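Late entry, evening session. Most of the bench is empty. Finally got around to the prediction I had been postponing all week. Sequence below, unchanged from the version circulated by S.P.
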Amino acid sequence: MVQVHVLGVALDAKQQHIVLLKPLFEELGESRVLPIWIGEQEATSILIAVSGVAAPRPLSHDLMKTLLEALDADVVQVEVERIDGGTFYAAVTLRGPNGTHLVDARPSDAIALAVRMDAPLFVSDEVLAEAAIPGSFIDQSGTDEDTEHELDEFKKFIEGVDPEDFKG
């Protein structure tokens, strides 16, 4: 297992969201980066957590964190364990009063929770060997101002949304 951190959240050429995981002790130009395609809501949740910004209302991952804290449980670590048919699989290790438990999870949910709980993230060597790309492929032209702009736009959307907007 290799410890990683969230390098960022990006869009691919088809405008699909990707979370980028980078090994902790590798320089960007010399390292590998693991792209994992995720949903828009999960991307937003991860972006908010990484940026340290609070959503106006708790998101699902904020609820998970609150529930774990209420049960006196911690996220020990998150592992992206394997790839099967192009699908990534992750596990969350929880520790609480009733012992340690390994919980199956989608990587996007596990990562969003780990970032909120300040838990370490790991990726198996096999997953990195199969799916990582050279770090030099990542465009680092985005700035903190771009991220802040995206968060501001999301906040405006959330503040103006009405539950009636989602009725079919």
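Two things to note before I forget:
Residues 2-159 form a domain with the Bifunctional nuclease domain fold (CATH 3.10.690.10).
The longest helix spans residues 144-160.
Will write this up properly tomorrow.
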